[in-house]
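anyone seen this seq b4? input:
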Amino acid sequence: MLEYVKTILMKVSFDGRLFEKELRKALNLLIPDEIQLFKEWCYSKFSSKYEPVLNKYFIGLAG
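predicted toks r here
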C-alpha cells in the first residue's frame, strides 16, 4: 500500500488541493509502521512545495 500511495501523490503533486486530499486519504490507508516511512518520503519529495500541508497532517502524529 505504501508504494501505491506514493505513486498517487507523485501523480497529483501538480495540484495543491488534490495533493492534500490524496495525502489525507493515504494516511487513512497506511498501517502505523508505514506512516513514519511515508512521512520521511513526503518531506524529502514535497517539502519545498507543500511543507505547510505536510506539517498540517504530520506534526503531532505519532511515529
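Residues 42 and 48 are 10 Å apart (CA to CA). The chain has three helices and no strands. kinda curious what u guys think
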